[in-house]
User: What shape does this take?
Amino acid sequence: MKAQASAEQQTAAKTGADLLVEAMIAQGVETLFGYPGGAVLPIYDAIYRAEGSFDHILPRHEQGAIHAAEGYARVSGKAGVVIGTSGPGATNLVTGIADAMMDSIPLVIFTGQVAKGVIGTDAFQESDIMGITTPITKHNYQVQEIEDLPRIVNEAFHIATTGRPGPVVVDIPKDISSTVHEKQVDSEFHLPGYQPTVKPNPLQINKLHDALVEAKKPVVLSGSGVIHAGASEELKTFVQNYQLPVTTTLLGLGSYPGSCDLSLGMAGMHGTYSANTALYECDLLINIGSRFDDRLTGNLKHFAPNATIAHIDIDPAEIGKNIPTQIPIVSDARAALVSLNEKPVKGLDHKGWMEAISQNKVDYPLWHDLPEEAIVPQWLMQKVYEYTDGKAVVTTDVGQHQMWAAQYYHFDRPNRWVTSGGLGTMGYGFPAAIGAQLADMDSTCVAVVGDGGFQMTMQELSVLQERKLPVKVLIVNNQALGMVRQWQETFYSERYSESIIDVQPDFVKLAESYQIAGYKMETQEELLEVLPEVLADDQPAVIDCRVLQKENVYPMIAPGKGLHEMIGVKR
Amino acid sequence: MRRIVTATVHNRSGVLNRVTGLLAKRQFNIESISVGRTETEGVSKMTFVVEVEDDRKLEQLTKQLNKQIEVLKVSDITDKAIVARELAMVKVISNPQIRSEIQGIIEPFRASIIDVSKESVTVQVTGKSDKVDALIDLLRPYGIKELARTGLTAFTRGHQPQVAEFKSYSLLK
Assistant: This one.
C-alpha cells in the first residue's frame, strides 16, 4: 500500500514549468507567441510534453511575438500570451510591452530569468526585467517560490483582462521552472489592492442624463474603452435613442459603425472637419472610454471650450487628467451605457446642431487629388475598403498610411482595426496581422504597412510561409518615411533629413524567397486588375504598391494648434 | 503646495521602486519618503511629503498611486488632524568646553545627546519637520559634521474634529 501511494506521488510530481502549462490550460490559453532560449528551456520542455495543448507561434524576433500577441488580443478580446527567454529575449519584448500599456491591450508575458541563486550577479543573459518593465506594465511579478506560481499565473490573467486591460509580466527564474514539486498547490487569489469599479454611480448617471436632455449641441466621443467593454450595441442604442452625433478616436474606430449617418468619422490631428468642429462647438461632450490623448485634443485651451464634459472611464486616473471634467463616471463603458439606456428617452432640441453638422459633412468631406495614372494612397485605401466589402481586419504601422487607413476604411464593427495608437510603433502592423489572422481565420486580414515600418519586422514573413497564413501585406510604398517627410516639408522648410529611403529590397523577390506571392503595382490600371483577386484569394501575399511620394495627410491640426485651426480642409 | 500623503502597501519586493518610479515618471517631486511596517503583518506604510502645483496634480498623484495593485489605500492627510514626526541625528563639532552649551540649546527641544566623543556630540531630535529645522539652524554655527533625517511619518489623530473642512478628492465632489 505504502509503495503504491509513493508511486502515485511520483506521478504527481511536476516541475514548475508543468504547473505553468497547467495553469495556462486552465486559463483557456490556446495560442502562444514565443521564442525559446536558455532560461525557458524547462518551459519549452513542458510545452513539448503537453503536446497539442497549444498552438505555438514561433516568430523570428521576440518583437514579432509580442506584436502578434497584441493583434491576437485586439481581435479575439482574449489575453495574448507571450514567452521570451531571459536577458535579450526579455528586452526585445520591451517595445511591445510599452505599446500594449499605452493602448490597454491585455497581454500576459512570461519571461525566463536566470536561477534565483545568481540573480544580481550579472549572470549570462541576466537582465533586470522587473526594473525595466515596472513603469510599462499594469503589474509584474517575479516568482520567488514554486508554490506561488499557479496563483501568480491566475492573478496575471485576471489583472491583464479586467478593469482597464494591460500587459502583465511574470518573470520565472530557471530553477523555479525546473524544480520538481510534489505537493498540491493552491491557486486561489485575493487582491485587496485591485478592485476596479465597474458599476457606475447612479447619481452621476442621473447627472449625465439631465445634462443630455438639456443639451443643444451634444456630441459623443467614443474611444477604445467601448471596444474593450464590448459596448458597441449599447452605444448604438444610446446614440439612436437621442440621435447623437458620434466621433471616435483613432483606437475607437469600429466602436460605432463608421458608415452610419450619425458617424462623423475620426476626430483629432487628422480627423474630419465635421468631427473636430463638433468637438470644438459642442455644449455637451460625452466621452466614453477615451483618454483625451494630445493627438485628439490638440491645444487643450481650445478643446471643447464651451462644453460640459462628461467622461465615462473604468480608470479613475484618466478622468480629469488632461481635461477638467464636470460629470465624472467611473465605470465599465457597457455598464454605464446600460444604465443610461434605462433612463426615459426624451427627444432633444438639437435640430439646428444636427443640420449644421450634416452641412459640414457635405461641405468639408475628406478630399484628395486623383492624377491620371499614379496611385494615390487615399484612393488605394478606398479600393481596399471596396474590395474587402468593409469587412477585413486591418492592421497598420504608424504614420501616413495609418492615417489614410483610419480615414478611408469605415469600420462598421469593433475589433477589426488593429493599430499602434499611443506608442506609435513602426513595425507593428505586419506581426500584429499574424496574430489578428490567427484570432480570426475566416476574415481577410490586410496588413497596411509603410515601406519603412515593414522593413523593421519583415522577417516574420517566415511565419506566413510556415503557417500558410493568408495575410495580405499591403506596402504603401512611397520610398520615404512619409509622416516624417510631411512634417519636414511643412515645418522644416523641406529639409528632408534622412527621410527619403529610395534604396530598398525588391519586395516581390523578397516575398518569393519565402515562397509567398509578390506583386508590384505602379499604376491605377495595374491595381484595378490585380488587387481584387489578391485580396479575395486565401493565400498570403505581399503587395508592393508604389504611391505618390509627395502626398500629404490632410486635414491636419498642426502641433500646438486648436481644433478650430485645421489646415488642408479644402483642396 | 506641500502635501503629506500616506499609502498602505503590500510589503513585497519592488514595491518601493514601483511607487517612487511612478512618482518620477509622472514628474512629481518627492521631498521625503519614509517606509516601515505596520500593525498588520505584510503591510507597510509609506509617508510621502510631496510638492505639487495644484489640486489637479494632487488628484493625479493619489489616483495613480491607487492604481498600483500593491497599494491598498492612499490618503492625503495634510488637512486632517494628524500627528507627524520625524527623527534627525546631528553630529556637531564640540569640545568638552561647549558641550554643556549645546546641552542648553537642545533641552527646550527635548532632544538628547546619544553619542559623545572628544571632538563631537551626536544629538537626536524628534518632532515635526519645522522643529527639527529650527534645532539644526541653532546647531549650525558650531559646525555640523554629519546630518541624517528619516523623513516625515504621520497618521491621523484618534479623534477628528467635526468642524474641520476636509478636502475631498473623491470623484463625487
About this structure: Chain B has four helices and nine strands.
